[in-house]
Write a structure and sequence with these properties.
Structural class: mainly alpha
Shape: elongated
Number of domains: 2
Helix content: over 70%
Number of helices: 15
Largest sheet: none
Distance between the termini: 90 Å
Strand content: under 5%
Amino acid sequence: MTTKNNTEYNTEYDNIIKHIKVIPLTPNISYEDIQSHLFNRGFINSTTTLLQTICNETIVSNTKRFLVSYLIYHKHVYNENPTELELEIIKAATDMLNSLHNTVSLDNSASLDNSTSLDNSKYIEYKETFIKYYNTYIEKYTTWATLDKRQLNTSLIHAHSELSNTQKFLNDNRKENTSDDIKQSQDQLDEEITGKLEDIENRLRVINGVKKAEDIKAALTANDETIQDDSIFKIAKKAFWDIFTEEIERNDYSRLFIILDEIKTRLKALTPNRQDIHTDIDQNIDIDLYKQMISNGAFETEDFMKLIEYLVTKIKQYIAPVHDTEIGHWVTKLYENIGDKYSKTLPAFFEEYYNYLEITEKEIADFRKSVQERQSKK
């Protein structure tokens, strides 16, 4: 066994310092800041060399897994309810990075060169601790990645698909004669969705590597078919309603007007040839009036309930009676919580309303299809 001399230990020590200066363990480092380093080829290569030197690592792909530990450490990977395995990975990542960053003293790093004398025995002790945690982390992360990579990709891909479909729907249904405020709100929403799509694509790169992620992205943009998976749709739709909640907290109701405009269009589409019903919908969902009332602070609980009652009445006119009981429970619960803030009641109501609207559209489409099939057989 070859024993390293001081120069070799100093080189290792210097390389560790250069590495840990790039991504510190201080709190509140953003996902974007860490991500920029994770995609930096020079940093990736130097990290690969560091792991090869210290841990005798021979699997190059473990470099990426090691670097993802910074995202895990700074709470940018797992949700608020991690699984038992994810908790083990979080602990392993925390122990590993703390041991690596504690291996050196940054206060003395500025004067470090190859002539510096290290306490080799102490350094070896710290390094062995890091290697132990590194091996634990890689083992647990590999197990998790094998189990969850497909599930993660599926979630991200479906979220990407749903957001893309939402963006396409909104852009396809833009109206030229709308006010500048509505156009500005539409542009803002389009920009926010684009940002979330880019975030999903970046996460796909972290999980799969850049080349594979580009293949996934190409497949997504080439596939116009909506992917159906109710459990995944909930993840994708949550982003839209979270934005809505945040905006109302800032007294920004611009998205409400967009939602109401879409609901008017979809309600009218349920009876495409009934102009009288269309006129009734326009009169009872007067977006310009609501905009003035909200701008002047005159939109009261009674006005909100009047709008809700009308919308619920309209959906009950078209949806199958089998849903009446559950709709009744939904409305009752809404009345019970009517005193809550608009940032809570509005998103909750419209999210559920969209669900019933989708059910109604499907039921009517199925009915029309069955009528056409019967007529074609005559």
